[in-house]
């Protein structure tokens, strides 16, 4: 199960990096940067992936899905909050 966590972590980092590069390329304001980052990093596709997860990993992997999703979500939210502080 560690490879699932590693993939999720790498995917989050790549999406975050893509958001940062795209925001710089488009010369976005700070608020728009945060909005773009949140949109790219937080996919709302957990329910779509559940049948695939059940098929690929069986019942033993299926019961870990909510935990892994929560860890990814809260880690990503923490990154966005600390790396893109609100301007004063």
TrEMBL record:
Q: Cite the entry's keywords alphabetically.
A: Membrane, Transmembrane, Transmembrane helix
Membrane-crossing residues?
A: 6-23, 35-58
Entry superkingdom: Bacteria
Q: Does the keyword Transmembrane apply?
A: yes
Protein's UniProt name: Transporter
């Amino acid at each position: 199960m560690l490879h699932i966590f590693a993939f999720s972590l790498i995917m989050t980092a790549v999406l975050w990096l893509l958001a940062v590069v795209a925001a710089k390329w488009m010369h976005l304001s700070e608020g728009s940067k945060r909005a773009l980052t949140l949109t790219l990093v937080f996919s709302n596709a957990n329910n779509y992936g559940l049948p695939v997860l059940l098929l690929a990993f069986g019942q033993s992997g299926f019961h870990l899905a909510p935990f892994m999703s929560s860890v990814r979500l809260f880690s990503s939210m923490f990154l966005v909050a600390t790396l893109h502080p609100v301007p004063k």
